[in-house]
Amino acid sequence: MHIHNFSKQNTILNTFVSEMRDVSIQKDSMRFRRNIERIGEILGYELSKKLSYKPTTIKTPLGVCEIEKIDNDIVLCSILRAGVPLHDGLLNYFDKAENAFISAYRHHKEKPESFEIIVEYLACPSLENKTLILADPMLATGQSMVATFEALKPFGTPKNIHLVSVIAAQEGIDFIENHFDKDTHLWVATVDEKLNEKGYIVPGLGDAGDLAFGEKLQQ
Ligand code: URA
């Protein structure tokens, strides 16, 4: 897997991530969502450098010019809930993309540290020969990403796959590396050290879905 971790460079991306982490700023849910969206835009721009391009002739009012334009059929797929603002950011740039949504949540068994991923809702176009961009802001254990990928398989075989996350745990990256093709790209704003006993990323930022959309009753 090709891993692109942008925290190694000093850019404004790190400012957006720091605002998402900061307990004195992250409770402003509009700013939290907007920061995820801005990160989606930046990572989308970065991943556009790996897409295919074809020369196109454009007519302007004063003449014609040759421009290389994206030649991929893109499907953006996001994992609900926290994937929604990341999806928005990617869609701001890949505005002609088709879209897929999937719900994947952790169903806790007896102990808080043991859970299985339940996939319930899935709406997806054909993926055959297309470029799949799979967005999940928090790549923690990696199980949701893999469960999503498995659930998408009946929709066709993508030509290439890009995974997009805001924060990943190294453990999650190690897990997904065993399940995705070696040509897959992972675009991530930053990689954190570890997971806690509940499978949350440390230092991370907490529950991205709750911070973006409000707390839920645990079921
Ligand atoms: N999902 C989150 O929202 N946060 C984590 O740390 C892990 C998964």
Automatic annotation (TrEMBL):
Reaction catalysed by this enzyme: UMP + diphosphate = 5-phospho-alpha-D-ribose 1-diphosphate + uracil
Keywords, comma-separated and alphabetical: Allosteric enzyme, Glycosyltransferase, GTP-binding, Nucleotide-binding, Transferase
Enzyme Commission designation: 2.4.2.9
Domain of life, source organism: Bacteria
Cofactor(s) named in the record: Mg(2+)
MF terms (GO), sorted A to Z: GTP binding; uracil phosphoribosyltransferase activity
Gene3D superfamilies: 3.40.50.2020
Occurrences of domain Phosphoribosyltransferase (ranges): 9-214
Pathway: Pyrimidine metabolism; UMP biosynthesis via salvage pathway; UMP from uracil: step 1/1
Record CDD domains: PRTases_typeI
Function per UniProt: Catalyzes the conversion of uracil and 5-phospho-alpha-D-ribose 1-diphosphate (PRPP) to UMP and diphosphate.
Family that this chain belongs to: Belongs to the UPRTase family.
PANTHER family, per the entry: BIFUNCTIONAL PROTEIN PYRR
Full protein name: Uracil phosphoribosyltransferase
Annotated organism of origin: Xanthomarina spongicola
